[in-house]
Model the fold of this input.
Amino acid sequence: MASNSGPKSLNRSQNNGSSNNSNNSDKQVIHTTSSSKSSSGHPPVRSKPNSAKRSVTPNSRAANPNNNDDSEPARVRVAVRVRPRDAEDLNSEADYADCVELQPELKRLKLRKNNWNADSYKFDEVFTDSASQRRVYEVVAKPVVESVINGYNGTIMAYGQTGTGKTYTMGRLGKHDPSERGIMVRSLEDILANTSPTLDTVEISYLQLYLESIQDLLAPEKNNIPIAEDPKTGEVSLPGAAVVKIRDLDQFLQLVQIGESNRHAANTKMNTESSRSHAILMVYIQRSSLGKADNEVSPQDRDSKRSMGNNMNTLHKSKLLIVDLAGSERIAKSGAEGHMLEETKFINLSLTSLGKCINALAENSSHIPTRDSKLTRMLRDSFGGSARTSLIITIGPSARHHAETSSTIMFGQRAMKVVNMLKLKEEFDYESLCRKLENQVDYLIAENERQQKIREDDKEEMEKKLIEYRNSFAEVESSLDARSQLFENENNRLVSENQRLLDELKLQKDRNDVLHDQVARLEMSLKQSKQNQLEGSSYQKMLADTTQMYEKKIAELMEQIEDEHSQIERAEDQLAKVKQMLSDHQKSTERQEKQEIDDLKDKLQKMCQVYDKTVNEFQSLKTENVELLSEKATSSEELQKLTQKLSAEEKQRKHMEDEFYKLKKMVAENVNGNEDKSSTMKEINGKVHPGFGNSLSFSRSFQQREAIPRVSKIFEEVGLEKTIAMLKSQDLEVQIHAVKAVANLAAEDSNQEKIVEEGGLDALLMLLGSSENTTIHRVASGAIANLAMSEKNQGLIMSKGGAHLLASIASKTDDPQTLRMVAGAIANLCGNQKLHASLKEDGAIKALLGMGGSGNSDVIAQIARGMANFAKCESRGTVQGYRKGRSLLFEDGALPWLIDNCATNSSSTRRHIELALCHLAQNDENAPDFVSSGSVKELMRISSESTREDIRNLAKKTLKLNPMFQSEMEC
Done:
């Protein structure tokens, strides 16, 4: 689908109308719009002539050796955009100036090394932190988009450090605020506005380069897509990648949103939503130009076109690459570890390969190492090829990132030296013409077949009608013969019949005369019968009256009989009821007697069982008495042994106390020879003030920082094993001094492993469980909190029941300092996703939330940090797919606690609470809890009012991607 694909491409020249004299319609003419200056205002720079050693891009080679390579040179245009200072920059660098000074009117910027020295750099455009998305698009991307619409290849790319706004500049969707749209959406909007949906085709592919593997963002199941190169043209293509035809901008926004949801991102110290892959949007445009004016082509081409037919279609095929590179980052600053560390290595490796290619092109090197990385292979046409390329580099103003900013600026300076050779390839639309001719041939063949079939059908029909007419004519002839014969026979029959009727008529006349006589006689007999009938009717009436009277009497008798029957039935029913009552009474009497007998039997049986039980208990008591006597003798022997063991331990304890007093004397002598013993011990055993940030550590005063190395040296001389052994002393003062010493040593990372190996962790956990002293609880909890900073020690603490002991201490004390230590230790454990279930089962999460009732700001700060650590781990597990289900924090009421404490005055505490809410909201299983508790409103507040821009962006993204949150916001 690349713009220069197809063996029959035609490059049209706009500078002159001359062409070769060949009549071949497939000839190639170079198109160029070269002038005295390039579009950027700089004089055109010709690249070094191709040599046998120089590896050039295939698109820059002429397809036909007879053609002159007059393609237009176009330098890579580079713009720089500065990100506004965020809240972290303002808080950490309030007393320092920015390292970047902008001069947008001169298109320059100055990079300060210090307050006296600065380097000046010139770019094609310099954008301040207030530049709008529209202006950035019109200056950087619109010229490239217009070239792509006209048939050239183009590339728009963003390069810069993590967190400087590359994705915001390139991929911002701006669904609710069109002014926020980035280059990607605005480019497609212009392309769709300048193309015809009926004649032109716009298609896209959306890919990401992750861990040096090309993945399809629109079809996530397509992974590790290969890169193929055309052996003839050298074109780079990606077979297997999904290509989707775009109808309108809404469809494109939906596809990009799907792709962004499949893109790898993670939370780092530099950015809460850091892209972990390079995203590449490929836009393929195919434009059809029908019947161009004759004056635009040479006479030979005009004759060729006329010979091939009028209105010959030509195709312009072009490709636009919009590249959002992952940010370069330093591991020490991003805090990447584990899988994220591998991601960072691959990102930096591919960006290094790209930098090498840019350096080689800028220096006109004989070898361009494009095959060192898949990224450079995919961008082969963008740098040193035939595409028009615009690069925008993003930087931050903070002096903390001076090295990264300098590296980014130098990358842009070297890219400005790269010159591409623009080419337009135009080809006849033979496929369209072929399809048209094939359609016409198919139509003519079908019409011919249809006419032939109609003629055959008419012929068959005429033959059938002729046969029918012949058959009907023969039938008519035979029927006429039969009918004539029938008429003759009928005529003969009618003649004979007429004669017969005449004979019958005569006979009938004679009969009529006889009948007249009989009628007269019958009339006389009828008169006589009428008179007899009148006499019979009076007799019948009298008989009917008599019958009716008898029927009435019979009915009365039947009614009397029915009444007597009903009385008999009622009497029988009453008799049956009396019999039933008598039978029921007899049965109830029998049951009652039987029940009384059964009760007596049961009571007798129970008495027998009680007797047997009493006898058995008596026998068992006798046996137990004998066993107790034997156990008493055994216990006496064990008691004597224990007494001897305690005596030996008492001697050992006194020996350890002597060692400890010697240790105190040595400390006093090393700290200050002129100070007394009590002041020295006060310095060593002073109060520990842990301050918790992203990880728990002890912040000491100057005296404590000076004393700890001396204490460490002294304890090295005495021996860590003896120091830990003092934790088991029976003397409370010895225990307190020893636990303080171990806590101070645990603050140093180098001592933690030795403490655990010598049994220090077991001794500290034993003190937490056995001691009732508040000071021991506080200092031991602080020591465990320091040890819990190591992932290895976290697992040991959990396996030895440390979380349960910490939860128990939290429930027993009201001392704010002790609660702060305990909360800090649990908060560190919350940063290990493998321990979440165990923390929940041991009651550590419930205890952590319960400590908020103390009202102490330091304790609340540690609780908020623990919630943020827990929620962050859960969110990471959900995104990476190895964790499912509702958050474990919700069962202990973490969500109401977070909402109640959102208005705290402490900025760090509020930041941890906001992060915890945003990470919890990313899990779709938690959405019903957020909706039911009204927490969606708090997310909306965070998206607009949070002091941290990264937290605001995270909240906005969470609200947009969740349908339940969207419906709740609309309500």
